[in-house]
Structure formats: C-alpha cells, structure tokens
Write a structure and sequence with these properties.
The protein is mainly alpha-helical. The chain is 57% helix and 6% strand.
Length: 145
C-alpha cells in the first residue's frame, strides 16, 4: 500500500500543479501524451500543448484542477480543428480547459461550483468566459499569487 502511495506521488511530481491536483487518470493521460509528444517533437512548449490537448478530450478544468468530462471528445472549436504545425494563429481561440461543447445545463452546474452567481442568467458564451475567468482565479489562488 505504501509503494502505491509513493508511486502516485512520484507520478504527480512532473506535471503542472493543476493536473497534480486532479485524479490519477488525468495525470496518466497528460504524462502519456507528453511522453509521446516529446518523442515526436522533442521537449518543450509544443509537446506540452499536445499533452494538454489530449487531456482536454477526457477532462475539463473546474477551478484549480481537472475533472473527467461526461463524454469524450474535443472541448472546443480549436481542439476540433487540430493543430497544423505553424498554423496556430489561424485557429479559433481555446476555451482554456472549459468544455465549451457541454450543454448549457452542465456549464451552469460548473459555474455554480466555481462561485459564479446566477449562471442561469448568462448565455452559453458568457458562461464559458465566466468559468474561464473563475478557473484562472482559482489557479492563481492555489499558487499563492
């Protein structure tokens, strides 16, 4: 049992803090995608972007951590477009881990959990923006900034 605990802690050592605060599947998904991307592209920003893209297919950012999504798939238009090398500037903006393809009801639930008051009064695009901002605030708070 102690070995499993040590192994789980070690697994979280090399991932961004928001992922380290997430479930084991999020950590494994990110690390496996990062290892594969580093084999393809070498270490660096591009490999981390690929790993985050893989994570966003299975998880969504809620506050300062990642939670499993209700359904597998791209989280926003950018994720669906894919990433042709050198074409990032032509892609739609990312939703920063918010599952923009989720139902309005789901987004309202997430918004309530991250402290947004009266999410039912917001349009879907406004909900996505508000959740992005709330997630960023929670992440900064967790970092002590």
């Amino acid at each position: 049992m102690v070995d499993k605990h040590r192994e789980a802690e070690k697994m979280r050592d090399d991932v961004p803090a928001t992922i380290a605060r997430s479930d084991d599947k999020a950590v494994r998904t990110y690390k496996k995608a990062l290892d594969s991307a580093e084999d393809t592209y070498g270490p660096g920003e591009r490999a981390h972007r690929v790993a985050y893209a893989a994570l966003k297919h299975t998880h969504e950012k809620v506050g300062d951590h990642w939670e499993p999504k209700e359904r597998w798939g791209p989280s926003d238009e950018r994720a669906e477009q894919g990433g042709a090398p050198g074409a990032v500037e032509h892609l739609a903006p990312t939703a920063q881990g918010v599952d923009a393809r989720a139902s309005k009801g789901h987004l309202e639930d997430v918004a309530t959990r991250v402290g947004i008051e009266h999410p039912e009064k917001l349009h879907k695009a406004e909900l996505i923006d508000a959740i992005e901002k709330a997630n960023a605030r929670e992440t900064r708070r967790s970092r002590g900034q």
